[in-house]
Each structure stands twice: as C-alpha cells, then as structure tokens.
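User: Just a sanity check before I run the rest of the batch. Below are the structure tokens for the first item. I only need the designed sequence back.
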C-alpha cells in the first residue's frame, strides 16, 4: 500500500526556543503531497484526512545544582495546540552540586483528522528556554514524520 502523502523533515542545527516558540526545520528527507519550505517552522497539509504525526527532539539544558526542568513539546495544528494528546515531556533533575549540561530526547506521536490547507508546527511548551541541539554536536536536533493514513 503506497502512502498518498508523507513527509520526513528535520533540523541539524542548534535552536534556543522560548515557551510557545516553534522549531524551525532546515532539511527535507522525503516529501510527497505535503508542502514545506526549508528554514521554516510551518508544514502544510495539501490533502485532508487522518494523519499520523511523530516527532523527536534532542535537547540540551544547563541545570544548576538541584534544579529540575521539563523538556516538553506540543503539536500545533492551524494555530491550535493539540493538548493533551500530543504533549510529551521529560522531567530532569540535576542532583549534583555543580551546574551540568543535561542532554535528553523527547518524542511524541498522535493521530488526527486534518483538513486541506491546515498547518502543522512543533512547539516548545517546556518550563523555560530550551535548546534543541544535535546530540554530541552533530546529527539531527529535531525531526517530524507525517503520514496520511486515510
């Protein structure tokens, strides 16, 4: 069974995001019947239907001693945050007495009926500013996969 519409879009750059800010994707892996322009945060669905959306973000947060931080992301469809079904997060605590850089990954997924012309963005809803960065300095910092199911 061939998919009528799909996208694999990713970023390989560092991005510091404030709460409510969208991830900017700069690379296209594969794209069919979904519109996207690199160095944008907006993905447009050309053909409505039921879609599976999956994402993963590598994060890097500087935490002070005994500080806790939530790395959290939300899918936004045409300006509306898809909560609670698209919100996934990791909570990290730095138990050391030193400031440390904490690297982790947050992944999430959802299935939604999406109309023609709707836009999709991946939004930081973390507990403060967060940096999406490739783990260990190279590779992918964030990616999103979108597949039309029906």
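Assistant: Here's the designed sequence for the first item:
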């Amino acid at each position: 069974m061939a998919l009528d519409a799909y996208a694999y879009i990713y970023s390989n750059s560092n991005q510091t995001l404030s709460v409510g800010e969208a991830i900017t994707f700069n690379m296209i892996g594969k794209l069919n019947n979904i519109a996207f322009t690199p160095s944008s945060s907006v993905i447009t669905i050309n053909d409505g239907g039921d879609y599976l959306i999956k994402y993963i973000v590598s994060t890097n947060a500087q935490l002070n001693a005994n500080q806790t931080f939530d790395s959290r992301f939300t899918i936004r469809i045409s300006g509306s945050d898809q909560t609670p079904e698209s919100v996934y997060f990791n909570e990290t605590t730095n138990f050391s007495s030193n400031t440390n850089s904490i690297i982790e990954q947050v992944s999430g997924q959802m299935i939604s009926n999406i109309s023609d012309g709707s836009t999709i963005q991946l939004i930081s809803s973390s507990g403060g500013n967060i940096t999406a960065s490739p783990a260990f300095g190279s590779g992918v910092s964030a990616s999103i996969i979108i597949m039309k199911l029906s």
